[in-house]
# Entry
Amino acid sequence: MKPNFDQNWTTTNGGVPLNDSEVERYIGVVPRPNQVHLAQQPFYCFMHFGMNTANQREWGSGRETVQDFTIKKIKPEQWVRTVKAAGASGIILTCKHHDGFCLWPSAYTSFSVKNTDFDGDIVKQVSDACAAGGLDFGVYLSPWDMHEPTYGTPDYNDYFCNQLTELLTNYGHISEVWFDGAKGANAKAFTYDWQRYYKLIRTMQPNANIAICGEDIRWVGNEAGKARKNEYSVVPASLKQCEAIEKNSQNAEGDAARLQKVDTMDEDLGSRKILKSNAFLSWYPAEVDVSIRKGWFYHKKDDKTVKSARRLFNIYLKSVGNNCTLLLNVPPTDRGVICSKDVRALKALGEKINGITENPVLEQNIGELKQDQGYLEFNFDSAKKLKYFVISEDLTCSQRIEKFDLYLKK
# Structure
């Protein structure tokens, strides 16, 4: 489209209303304070670490014993330094994966780090290192448990809540509780008491975001690091239904590759057309979860699959730069450190992220635009090289910007 700077585009607004009862309904949906914090810290790291790290697997078999966990020490301070160098703001640790092995000395099972040769509490060591380094700390607790005998019975919900209580009580501020719906095809049919889990989190850690199978953050729908062309934060409340997430999550150990393919069947989740046909709306932003490697746990054979800084930066731009948060998985090795190849890629990624705003041509807080402001014009006294354009809005006033155009005048 040829720009016409004599026309005031905003007043026409593409032929759709700027203000009416429907618009008021849309912009009446605002984020909770914990979701505002999330938007301000949109890049953080997953760390898959545990029994699978020791056994060189992606999923457990359900036949593991505590003797199989042969890792004796970790260096969480190195994890924190690596994450900070990448420009990320926090760590979410897999405190219990599907195999059921607990990285903390849980009082409710013998299948935990307390009965191994590891000296200490892994969750405590990581959470303390995050606190000392100024990072947020979050927990992943797999609802599916291959080891626990009560799984598949009503008693398991009690077991799960007891372990969740331990994590919410003993490790300081929890920024995010991450649930998924992954479950083996041969697992017992069982309905998780999600509402009970949510109520417990809201009571014990009211500032924590509940992600994916949760009420605060939705899954983008793939593990490829891809977002939709338009990712909205205000979407139909029905997207919070956990059943759909469980159905689309991993159902077998080899499903990671399948989920790295993008499904665009639901490309439009929050346009006016979609919102108009849904009576109940919610603030439910998307999270892009992707691994720096082929798999989610560390395997030496996958060292050659570490994504380059350039590729990681492209994922960052298309996730954080497209109204999503980015959860980048960085799995520690069986020596308890982040692999040097990952460290180098993440350091270079951090440098690229810092470079976005390193030499700003212009920084301005515009404030609230008026109806008679069709466009904003900025003039410079000399030619300027513009590589990135960063625009944001005050989310406490909801999501109001639908589209913008950027023109460079010579």
Notes: The chain has twelve helices and ten strands. Residues 340-356 form the longest helix (17 residues). Strands lie at 43-47, 90-96, 136-141, 176-179, 209-212, 218-219, 234-236, 281-283, 286-291, 324-329. Confidence is low (pLDDT under 50) at residues 255-265.
